Amino acid sequence: MLQPDLGTGVVLAGATLLIIFAAGSRILHLALLGLMGLAGFTGLILSAPYRLDRISGFLYPWKDPLGTGYQIIQSLLAIGPGGLVGLGFDHSLQKHSYLPEPQTDFIFSIIGEELGFIGGGFVLALFAVLVWRGIHTAMTAPDTFGSLTAIGITGMVFVQVTINIGVVIGVFPVTGITLPLISYGGSSLTLMLTGLGILLNISRHART
Questions:
Q1: Cβ–Cβ under 8 Å, residues 159 and 192
Q2: What is the phi/psi pair of residue 172, to 5°?
Q3: Residue among 166, 165, 176 at smallest CA distance from 5
Q4: CA dist., res. 9 & res. 156, Å (int)
Q5: CA-based nearest residue to 96, from 82, 78, 76, 120
Q6: DSSP state at residue 81
Q7: What is the pTM of this model?
Q8: Is the peptide bond before 4 cis (omega within 30 degrees of 0)?
Q9: Is residue 1 part of a domain?
Q10: What would the DSSP string read from start to end of 184-201?
Q11: Which residues lie closer than 8 Å to 121 by C-beta, 6 or more apart?
Q12: For labeling, which of 77, 95, 178, 193 is most exposed (least CB within 10 Å)?
């Protein structure tokens, strides 16, 4: 939060709530914690003008198409023409200086443009299998610590994918969250592979 990096903070908070829920916390306590978090989240947004601009660009992107609404508009202009089967691999137009940094946060836009609905759906299906296997590992882990660790790692993947895809298709405001295992970035990939390595280690000792 002090960097500031609100997006990563949201991912960590989301994964933490999943761990607390899996550990047996009462729904009422989680709801109260969520309300406190929402109030703090609102305060953080109001405290930074650029975050307010992102909210404005999210709600009214065409009000400032060359400013705060530029990224989401270009993202949608990439996904839309992709149609069912896409324009073909490496035939994207938006990645050529139209969509900023298409290799990082908005890589899914290019996947949608080049590979279409089928390609994008296939990527989401792979993430769904990964999350499902992570939950299965948590349920069959040999001890509570391993179970909650597996839930935390799986939760981070799930929350990160949800936020990234939501931003790309215009459901969430723009934030700097990468798409796990796909977006360009050495540190992001290294930490994600480390987490998945731990998850695989827990899976090796899972109860059959």
A1: no
A2: -120, 155
A3: 176
A4: 11
A5: 78
A6: H
A7: 0.84
A8: yes
A9: no
A10: S-HHHHHHHHHHHHHHHH
A11: none
A12: 193
Rounded-to-integer distance, Cα 151 and Cα 108, Å:
25
111: Cβ contacts below 8 Å, ≥ 6 apart: 119, 120, 123, 182
Number of domains comprising the chain: 1
Tokens of residue 203, six digits: 């899976």
Say if residues 54 and 175 touch (Cβ distance below 8 Å): yes
* 3-state DSSP assignment of residue 170: coil
d(CA 102, CA 41): 27
Do 13 and 37 touch, CB atoms closer than 8 A? Answer: yes
In a domain, 151, yes or no: yes
Pairwise CA distance, residues 156 & 162, whole Å? 10
Ranges under pLDDT 70 in the chain: 1-2, 4, 47-51, 208
* pLDDT at residue 207, rounded to an integer: 74
Q: Which three-class secondary structure state does DSSP give residue 60?
A: coil
The per-residue pLDDT for 62 is 76
Find the domain containing 34 and state its range: 6-204
- CA separation for the pair 46, 30 (Å, rounded): 24
Tokens matching residue 202: 């827990």
Half-sphere exposure of residue 43, counting CA atoms within 13 Å on the CB side? 7
List CB contacts of 37: < 8 A, sequence separation 6 or more.
13
Nearest to 4 by CA among 40, 38, 51: 51
Whether 120 is in a domain gets the answer yes
CA-CA distances (angstroms) from residue 143 to 146, 200, 205?
5, 15, 10
